[in-house]
Amino acid sequence: MTNVKCLNPIAACGLDLFSDNYKMTDNLEEAEAVLVRSASMHEMELPESLVAVARAGAGVNNIPLEDCANKGIVVFNTPGANANGVKELVVAGLLLASRDLMGGYNWVKANADDADIAKKVEKQKKEYAGNEIAGKKLGVIGLGAIGAKVANIAFRLGMEVYGYDPYVSIDAAWSLSRHIKHIQYIEDIYRECDYITIHVPALDSTKGMLNKEAFAMMKDGVRILNFARDVLVNDEDMKEALASGRVKKYVTDFPNPAIAGLDNVITLPHLGASTDESEDNCAVMAVKQIMDYMENGNIKNSVNYPACDAGKCETVARVCVCHKNIPDMLTRFTGVFSKDGINIANMMSKSKGDWAYTILDVESQVSESDKKDIEAVEGVVKVRVI
Protein backbone atom coordinates (compact mmCIF):
# COMPACT_ATOMS: atom_id res chain seq x y z
CA MET A 1 0.00 0.00 0.00
CA THR A 2 1.38 3.39 -1.05
CA ASN A 3 0.51 6.36 1.15
CA VAL A 4 -0.19 9.58 -0.77
CA LYS A 5 -0.42 13.05 0.79
CA CYS A 6 -2.11 15.97 -0.99
CA LEU A 7 -0.74 19.33 0.14
CA ASN A 8 -3.40 21.15 -1.91
CA PRO A 9 -6.80 20.16 -3.25
CA ILE A 10 -6.26 17.98 -6.34
CA ALA A 11 -8.98 17.43 -8.93
CA ALA A 12 -11.01 14.29 -8.31
CA CYS A 13 -10.59 13.09 -11.89
CA GLY A 14 -6.90 12.62 -11.09
CA LEU A 15 -7.26 11.11 -7.62
CA ASP A 16 -9.86 8.66 -8.93
CA LEU A 17 -7.15 7.05 -11.07
CA PHE A 18 -5.42 5.64 -7.99
CA SER A 19 -6.02 1.92 -7.56
CA ASP A 20 -6.79 0.17 -4.28
CA ASN A 21 -3.04 -0.10 -3.73
CA TYR A 22 -2.93 3.58 -2.87
CA LYS A 23 -4.23 5.25 0.27
CA MET A 24 -4.69 8.97 0.89
CA THR A 25 -3.19 10.15 4.16
CA ASP A 26 -3.29 13.39 6.14
CA ASN A 27 0.06 12.59 7.75
CA LEU A 28 3.10 13.78 5.80
CA GLU A 29 5.34 11.67 8.04
CA GLU A 30 4.03 8.44 6.53
CA ALA A 31 3.73 9.62 2.92
CA GLU A 32 5.64 7.90 0.13
CA ALA A 33 4.26 10.24 -2.53
CA VAL A 34 3.12 13.87 -2.38
CA LEU A 35 0.83 15.77 -4.74
CA VAL A 36 1.15 19.55 -4.59
CA ARG A 37 0.03 22.66 -6.43
CA SER A 38 1.04 25.95 -4.77
CA ALA A 39 1.90 24.95 -1.19
CA SER A 40 5.50 25.78 -0.27
CA MET A 41 7.58 22.76 0.72
CA HIS A 42 10.77 24.67 1.49
CA GLU A 43 10.20 24.75 5.24
CA MET A 44 8.82 21.21 5.51
CA GLU A 45 10.73 18.34 7.07
CA LEU A 46 10.54 15.69 4.37
CA PRO A 47 10.24 12.15 5.77
CA GLU A 48 12.56 9.26 4.90
CA SER A 49 9.59 7.41 3.45
CA LEU A 50 9.03 10.01 0.72
CA VAL A 51 10.23 8.94 -2.74
CA ALA A 52 8.20 11.11 -5.15
CA VAL A 53 6.65 14.58 -5.37
CA ALA A 54 4.37 15.55 -8.26
CA ARG A 55 3.55 19.20 -8.90
CA ALA A 56 0.18 19.56 -10.62
CA GLY A 57 1.47 22.40 -12.79
CA ALA A 58 4.65 23.47 -14.52
CA GLY A 59 6.43 25.78 -12.04
CA VAL A 60 8.37 24.13 -9.22
CA ASN A 61 9.78 27.12 -7.33
CA ASN A 62 7.73 26.02 -4.29
CA ILE A 63 9.69 22.74 -4.05
CA PRO A 64 13.26 22.35 -2.71
CA LEU A 65 14.61 20.54 -5.76
CA GLU A 66 18.20 20.05 -4.68
CA ASP A 67 17.23 18.90 -1.20
CA CYS A 68 14.86 16.39 -2.78
CA ALA A 69 17.55 15.16 -5.17
CA ASN A 70 19.96 14.65 -2.28
CA LYS A 71 17.35 12.50 -0.55
CA GLY A 72 16.49 10.49 -3.66
CA ILE A 73 13.07 12.11 -4.00
CA VAL A 74 12.08 12.41 -7.65
CA VAL A 75 10.16 15.62 -8.39
CA PHE A 76 7.73 15.62 -11.30
CA ASN A 77 5.83 18.44 -12.97
CA THR A 78 3.15 18.48 -15.66
CA PRO A 79 4.42 20.52 -18.62
CA GLY A 80 1.82 21.14 -21.28
CA ALA A 81 -1.15 20.05 -19.18
CA ASN A 82 -2.23 23.65 -18.68
CA ALA A 83 -0.91 24.94 -22.02
CA ASN A 84 -4.28 25.54 -23.62
CA GLY A 85 -5.58 27.49 -20.63
CA VAL A 86 -2.53 29.76 -20.66
CA LYS A 87 -2.69 30.12 -24.45
CA GLU A 88 -6.26 31.36 -24.28
CA LEU A 89 -5.36 33.91 -21.61
CA VAL A 90 -2.46 35.15 -23.74
CA VAL A 91 -4.96 35.75 -26.55
CA ALA A 92 -7.03 37.76 -24.08
CA GLY A 93 -3.85 39.61 -23.15
CA LEU A 94 -3.21 40.50 -26.80
CA LEU A 95 -6.68 42.03 -27.02
CA LEU A 96 -6.33 43.84 -23.69
CA ALA A 97 -3.03 45.31 -24.89
CA SER A 98 -4.58 46.45 -28.18
CA ARG A 99 -8.03 47.72 -27.25
CA ASP A 100 -8.65 49.76 -24.11
CA LEU A 101 -11.24 47.29 -22.91
CA MET A 102 -10.41 47.87 -19.26
CA GLY A 103 -10.79 51.65 -19.60
CA GLY A 104 -14.12 51.28 -21.36
CA TYR A 105 -15.39 48.75 -18.85
CA ASN A 106 -14.40 50.94 -15.90
CA TRP A 107 -16.13 53.98 -17.44
CA VAL A 108 -19.37 52.07 -17.96
CA LYS A 109 -19.25 50.70 -14.41
CA ALA A 110 -18.63 54.16 -12.96
CA ASN A 111 -21.54 55.61 -14.94
CA ALA A 112 -23.96 52.73 -14.58
CA ASP A 113 -26.54 54.84 -12.76
CA ASP A 114 -26.55 57.63 -15.35
CA ALA A 115 -29.92 57.69 -17.12
CA ASP A 116 -28.25 59.15 -20.22
CA ILE A 117 -25.46 56.56 -20.39
CA ALA A 118 -26.59 55.21 -23.77
CA LYS A 119 -26.22 58.67 -25.33
CA LYS A 120 -22.94 59.47 -23.60
CA VAL A 121 -21.42 56.23 -24.82
CA GLU A 122 -21.26 57.54 -28.38
CA LYS A 123 -19.17 60.54 -27.30
CA GLN A 124 -17.07 58.67 -24.75
CA LYS A 125 -16.06 55.62 -26.76
CA LYS A 126 -13.42 57.47 -28.76
CA GLU A 127 -11.40 57.70 -25.53
CA TYR A 128 -10.98 53.92 -25.58
CA ALA A 129 -10.23 53.32 -29.24
CA GLY A 130 -7.42 50.91 -30.03
CA ASN A 131 -5.77 48.82 -32.70
CA GLU A 132 -6.50 45.51 -34.36
CA ILE A 133 -3.94 42.74 -34.00
CA ALA A 134 -4.35 41.39 -37.54
CA GLY A 135 -1.33 42.27 -39.65
CA LYS A 136 0.83 43.15 -36.64
CA LYS A 137 4.11 41.41 -35.84
CA LEU A 138 4.19 39.17 -32.77
CA GLY A 139 7.43 37.88 -31.31
CA VAL A 140 7.13 34.67 -29.29
CA ILE A 141 10.15 34.07 -27.08
CA GLY A 142 10.19 30.40 -26.08
CA LEU A 143 8.47 27.76 -28.20
CA GLY A 144 7.64 25.12 -25.65
CA ALA A 145 4.17 23.68 -25.08
CA ILE A 146 2.61 27.09 -24.42
CA GLY A 147 4.70 29.23 -26.76
CA ALA A 148 4.02 26.95 -29.73
CA LYS A 149 0.26 27.11 -29.13
CA VAL A 150 0.39 30.90 -28.80
CA ALA A 151 2.38 31.20 -32.04
CA ASN A 152 -0.07 29.01 -33.96
CA ILE A 153 -3.24 30.74 -32.73
CA ALA A 154 -1.75 34.19 -33.31
CA PHE A 155 -1.04 33.29 -36.94
CA ARG A 156 -4.62 32.11 -37.34
CA LEU A 157 -5.76 35.47 -35.96
CA GLY A 158 -3.92 37.16 -38.78
CA MET A 159 -0.68 38.15 -37.08
CA GLU A 160 2.78 37.86 -38.58
CA VAL A 161 4.51 35.60 -36.07
CA TYR A 162 8.22 35.43 -35.26
CA GLY A 163 9.38 32.60 -33.01
CA TYR A 164 12.65 32.42 -31.06
CA ASP A 165 13.89 29.37 -29.16
CA PRO A 166 17.43 28.02 -29.59
CA TYR A 167 16.48 24.89 -27.64
CA VAL A 168 13.13 24.07 -29.24
CA SER A 169 12.23 20.40 -28.80
CA ILE A 170 11.43 18.08 -31.68
CA ASP A 171 7.83 17.73 -30.47
CA ALA A 172 7.36 21.50 -30.30
CA ALA A 173 8.96 21.97 -33.71
CA TRP A 174 6.57 19.46 -35.27
CA SER A 175 3.58 21.19 -33.68
CA LEU A 176 4.49 24.63 -35.05
CA SER A 177 2.76 26.00 -38.10
CA ARG A 178 5.07 26.25 -41.11
CA HIS A 179 4.04 29.91 -41.31
CA ILE A 180 5.91 30.80 -38.09
CA LYS A 181 9.13 32.63 -38.92
CA HIS A 182 11.99 31.05 -36.99
CA ILE A 183 14.35 33.74 -35.71
CA GLN A 184 17.98 32.97 -34.94
CA TYR A 185 18.75 36.02 -32.82
CA ILE A 186 16.49 37.33 -30.07
CA GLU A 187 17.57 40.89 -30.91
CA ASP A 188 15.62 40.58 -34.16
CA ILE A 189 12.47 39.93 -32.12
CA TYR A 190 13.14 43.10 -30.14
CA ARG A 191 13.73 45.21 -33.24
CA GLU A 192 10.95 43.94 -35.49
CA CYS A 193 7.91 43.10 -33.39
CA ASP A 194 4.92 45.19 -32.36
CA TYR A 195 4.00 42.69 -29.65
CA ILE A 196 6.31 40.45 -27.63
CA THR A 197 5.18 37.55 -25.47
CA ILE A 198 7.61 35.57 -23.36
CA HIS A 199 7.32 31.84 -22.53
CA VAL A 200 10.61 30.64 -21.05
CA PRO A 201 11.44 29.09 -17.66
CA ALA A 202 12.93 31.14 -14.82
CA LEU A 203 16.64 30.28 -14.97
CA ASP A 204 19.72 32.25 -13.99
CA SER A 205 20.20 32.95 -17.70
CA THR A 206 16.63 34.26 -18.22
CA LYS A 207 15.91 36.23 -15.05
CA GLY A 208 15.62 39.91 -15.88
CA MET A 209 16.14 39.25 -19.59
CA LEU A 210 13.60 41.92 -20.51
CA ASN A 211 15.60 44.85 -19.19
CA LYS A 212 16.85 48.31 -20.14
CA GLU A 213 19.14 46.95 -22.85
CA ALA A 214 16.36 44.88 -24.40
CA PHE A 215 13.84 47.75 -24.26
CA ALA A 216 16.35 50.06 -25.96
CA MET A 217 16.27 47.79 -29.04
CA MET A 218 12.47 47.66 -29.25
CA LYS A 219 10.09 49.74 -31.30
CA ASP A 220 8.44 52.74 -29.67
CA GLY A 221 5.00 51.68 -28.49
CA VAL A 222 5.75 47.96 -28.24
CA ARG A 223 3.31 45.90 -26.21
CA ILE A 224 4.73 43.20 -23.92
CA LEU A 225 2.99 40.18 -22.42
CA ASN A 226 4.37 38.08 -19.58
CA PHE A 227 2.39 34.98 -18.67
CA ALA A 228 5.48 32.92 -17.80
CA ARG A 229 7.32 34.18 -14.68
CA ASP A 230 7.51 37.61 -13.03
CA VAL A 231 11.31 37.48 -12.64
CA LEU A 232 11.82 37.44 -16.40
CA VAL A 233 11.14 41.19 -16.48
CA ASN A 234 13.21 43.81 -14.66
CA ASP A 235 10.43 45.82 -13.01
CA GLU A 236 12.40 49.04 -12.55
CA ASP A 237 13.50 49.03 -16.18
CA MET A 238 9.92 48.29 -17.23
CA LYS A 239 8.68 51.31 -15.25
CA GLU A 240 11.15 53.54 -17.11
CA ALA A 241 10.17 52.05 -20.47
CA LEU A 242 6.49 52.68 -19.73
CA ALA A 243 7.16 56.25 -18.60
CA SER A 244 9.11 57.01 -21.80
CA GLY A 245 6.50 55.44 -24.05
CA ARG A 246 8.89 52.83 -25.40
CA VAL A 247 6.50 50.22 -23.95
CA LYS A 248 2.88 51.19 -24.57
CA LYS A 249 1.24 48.38 -22.61
CA TYR A 250 2.50 45.69 -20.26
CA VAL A 251 0.16 42.79 -19.56
CA THR A 252 1.29 40.36 -16.89
CA ASP A 253 -0.15 37.52 -14.84
CA PHE A 254 2.14 38.36 -11.91
CA PRO A 255 1.19 41.46 -9.90
CA ASN A 256 3.71 42.81 -7.40
CA PRO A 257 4.11 46.12 -5.53
CA ALA A 258 6.50 47.51 -8.15
CA ILE A 259 4.10 47.40 -11.10
CA ALA A 260 0.57 46.71 -9.83
CA GLY A 261 -1.59 49.78 -10.37
CA LEU A 262 0.76 51.56 -12.78
CA ASP A 263 -0.72 53.32 -15.78
CA ASN A 264 -0.60 51.17 -18.92
CA VAL A 265 -0.01 48.04 -16.90
CA ILE A 266 -2.70 45.36 -16.80
CA THR A 267 -2.06 42.85 -14.05
CA LEU A 268 -4.03 39.64 -13.61
CA PRO A 269 -3.89 37.51 -10.43
CA HIS A 270 -2.00 34.52 -11.87
CA LEU A 271 -5.00 33.19 -13.79
CA GLY A 272 -3.10 31.43 -16.59
CA ALA A 273 -3.87 27.88 -15.53
CA SER A 274 -6.94 28.71 -13.45
CA THR A 275 -9.44 26.77 -15.50
CA ASP A 276 -11.30 23.62 -14.58
CA GLU A 277 -9.83 21.91 -17.61
CA SER A 278 -6.23 22.83 -16.78
CA GLU A 279 -6.58 21.68 -13.19
CA ASP A 280 -8.09 18.40 -14.37
CA ASN A 281 -5.34 17.84 -16.95
CA CYS A 282 -2.59 18.59 -14.43
CA ALA A 283 -4.13 16.28 -11.82
CA VAL A 284 -4.45 13.40 -14.27
CA MET A 285 -0.87 13.78 -15.54
CA ALA A 286 0.58 14.11 -12.04
CA VAL A 287 -1.21 11.00 -10.76
CA LYS A 288 -0.23 8.92 -13.80
CA GLN A 289 3.42 9.90 -13.36
CA ILE A 290 3.33 9.00 -9.66
CA MET A 291 1.76 5.62 -10.37
CA ASP A 292 4.23 4.76 -13.15
CA TYR A 293 7.13 5.63 -10.88
CA MET A 294 5.82 3.78 -7.85
CA GLU A 295 4.80 0.67 -9.80
CA ASN A 296 7.42 0.52 -12.55
CA GLY A 297 10.19 2.88 -11.46
CA ASN A 298 9.84 4.90 -14.68
CA ILE A 299 10.59 8.63 -14.67
CA LYS A 300 8.85 11.06 -17.03
CA ASN A 301 8.83 14.84 -16.67
CA SER A 302 11.10 15.02 -13.65
CA VAL A 303 12.83 18.32 -12.95
CA ASN A 304 15.63 16.96 -10.77
CA TYR A 305 16.32 13.47 -12.18
CA PRO A 306 16.68 12.27 -15.79
CA ALA A 307 13.87 10.76 -17.83
CA CYS A 308 14.19 6.97 -17.76
CA ASP A 309 11.51 4.61 -19.07
CA ALA A 310 12.09 0.84 -19.12
CA GLY A 311 8.46 -0.06 -19.59
CA LYS A 312 6.98 -2.76 -17.35
CA CYS A 313 9.22 -5.18 -15.55
CA GLU A 314 9.00 -8.67 -17.06
CA THR A 315 11.55 -10.31 -14.77
CA VAL A 316 11.44 -11.33 -11.11
CA ALA A 317 12.40 -7.92 -9.74
CA ARG A 318 13.36 -4.40 -10.72
CA VAL A 319 15.95 -2.38 -8.81
CA CYS A 320 15.77 1.42 -9.13
CA VAL A 321 18.69 3.53 -7.96
CA CYS A 322 18.91 7.32 -7.52
CA HIS A 323 22.56 8.28 -7.41
CA LYS A 324 25.19 10.88 -8.14
CA ASN A 325 26.38 11.18 -11.72
CA ILE A 326 29.90 9.89 -11.14
CA PRO A 327 32.07 7.31 -12.97
CA ASP A 328 32.02 3.54 -12.41
CA MET A 329 28.60 3.35 -10.77
CA LEU A 330 27.23 0.69 -13.13
CA THR A 331 30.25 -1.52 -12.55
CA ARG A 332 29.61 -1.40 -8.81
CA PHE A 333 25.91 -2.13 -9.18
CA THR A 334 26.44 -5.11 -11.46
CA GLY A 335 29.19 -6.38 -9.17
CA VAL A 336 26.70 -6.67 -6.31
CA PHE A 337 24.57 -9.09 -8.33
CA SER A 338 27.39 -10.98 -10.04
CA LYS A 339 28.86 -12.09 -6.71
CA ASP A 340 25.56 -13.86 -5.97
CA GLY A 341 25.17 -15.23 -9.49
CA ILE A 342 22.11 -13.07 -10.21
CA ASN A 343 21.56 -12.39 -13.91
CA ILE A 344 20.67 -8.89 -15.08
CA ALA A 345 18.18 -9.21 -17.95
CA ASN A 346 17.82 -5.53 -18.72
CA MET A 347 19.57 -2.36 -17.61
CA MET A 348 19.04 1.34 -18.27
CA SER A 349 20.94 4.29 -16.87
CA LYS A 350 20.44 7.99 -17.56
CA SER A 351 22.06 11.14 -16.23
CA LYS A 352 21.01 14.77 -15.84
CA GLY A 353 23.53 17.24 -14.51
CA ASP A 354 24.80 16.09 -11.13
CA TRP A 355 22.28 13.26 -10.85
CA ALA A 356 21.67 9.90 -12.46
CA TYR A 357 19.10 7.13 -12.32
CA THR A 358 19.55 3.42 -13.03
CA ILE A 359 17.03 0.64 -13.56
CA LEU A 360 18.17 -3.00 -13.35
CA ASP A 361 15.79 -5.88 -14.12
CA VAL A 362 17.06 -9.06 -12.48
CA GLU A 363 15.98 -12.70 -12.81
CA SER A 364 16.17 -13.60 -9.12
CA GLN A 365 14.81 -12.21 -5.87
CA VAL A 366 16.84 -9.33 -4.46
CA SER A 367 17.90 -9.98 -0.89
CA GLU A 368 17.99 -7.32 1.79
CA SER A 369 21.74 -7.83 1.86
CA ASP A 370 22.04 -7.05 -1.86
CA LYS A 371 19.90 -3.94 -1.41
CA LYS A 372 22.11 -2.75 1.44
CA ASP A 373 25.24 -3.38 -0.64
CA ILE A 374 23.91 -1.10 -3.38
CA GLU A 375 22.89 1.53 -0.81
CA ALA A 376 26.46 1.39 0.53
CA VAL A 377 27.96 2.40 -2.82
CA GLU A 378 29.34 5.92 -2.52
CA GLY A 379 27.06 8.35 -4.33
CA VAL A 380 23.85 6.30 -3.96
CA VAL A 381 21.03 8.18 -2.23
CA LYS A 382 17.98 5.91 -2.68
CA VAL A 383 17.34 2.31 -3.68
CA ARG A 384 13.93 0.79 -4.36
CA VAL A 385 13.14 -2.80 -5.22
CA ILE A 386 9.91 -3.31 -7.17
Polypeptide structure, described:
By secondary structure, this protein is of the alpha/beta class. Helices cover 32% and strands 21% of the residues. The chain contains 13 helices and 16 strands. Strands 8-7-6-9-10-11-12 form a 7-stranded parallel beta sheet, sandwiched between helices. Strand 10, helix 10 and strand 11 (247-252) form a beta-alpha-beta unit. Helix 3 (83-98) packs across helix 6 (145-156). The protein is elongated and about 90 Å long. The mean pLDDT is 96.
Widest β-sheet, arrangement of strands: 8-7-6-9-10-11-12
**Quaternary structure annotation:** single chain
Given the structure, what is the number of helices?
A: 13
Helical content (DSSP H or I, runs of 4+) = 25-40%
Beta-strand portion reads 15-25%
Instruction: Tell me the major beta sheet.
Output: 7 strands, parallel
Overall 3D geometry? elongated
Distance separating the two termini: 13 Å
Short characterization:
The protein is α/β, with parallel strands linked by helices and 386 residues long. It is built from 13 helices and 16 strands. The strands form three sheets. A seven-stranded parallel sheet has the order 8-7-6-9-10-11-12, with helices on both faces.
Write the layout of secondary structure elements.
Layout: E1 2-6, H1 12-15, E2 22-24, E3 33-36, E4 52-55, H2 65-70, E5 74-76, H3 83-98, H4 101-110, H5 117-124, E6 137-141, H6 145-156, E7 160-164, H7 170-175, E8 181-182, H8 186-192, E9 195-198, H9 212-217, E10 222-226, H10 235-244, E11 247-252, E12 265-267, H11 276-296, E13 317-324, H12 329-338, E14 344-352, E15 355-362, H13 368-375, E16 380-385
Parallel strand pairs: 1-2, 1-3, 3-4, 4-5, 6-7, 6-9, 7-8, 9-10, 10-11, 11-12
Antiparallel strand pairs: 13-15, 13-16, 14-15
